[in-house]
Amino acid sequence: KVLPFKVPVSEETSFRVQVDQVKHFYDKFHHHREVQITWIQKSYGSLLMGNTISTFAENDLLVIGANVPHSFRNDEVFYKKNKKLSAEAISILFDENAFGKSFFDLPEMKNIKSFIKNADKGYRIYGKTKEKIITQLKLIENKNGPERFLILMEILNQLSISKEVELLSSLSFL
After folding, report:
1. pLDDT, tens digit, 9 for 90 and up, residues 152-173
2. How far apart are CA 23 and CA 19, in angstroms?
3. Cα–Cα distance, 55 to 74 (Å, whole number)
4. Comparing C-alpha atoms, which of 41, 38, 35 is closest to residue 14?
5. Residue 146: its H or E element
């Protein structure tokens, strides 16, 4: 069963930057209306996304489309009393309409709109693109206002023009 999940939002921001430092990731099969960009800093396990089962590991960079059912299930060792293991990630979650209903319809946003539309198949990012985006994810958590927004736009631009992306499924989950 897929659980609906409500991503907590703040009055001060139009998108969420989430830093997880936990024993194991939230492992319920769920969906939310936000697009999710996640860098796995520490951890490994199984990624269930739509009708695809894959793996995730340290330093993976993944993009999950809006409303796509998914679960990050850590390997069993993370659920035992082992103080040395932890699951750590930085995620950006944003609603496609958070910046206005027609924001991504602007001609300048054509590539980004296409990337977001295809995110319902899921992406794994690699190579120099991954390195650039990880650098930006490290910066974004300590930024506010326009700087934070511009970093997100730069991340989306990099993702939309890169060839260093792997679709996780050939099927749309929606």
Report:
1. 999 999 999 999 999 888 766 6
2. 13
3. 9
4. 35
5. helix 145-161
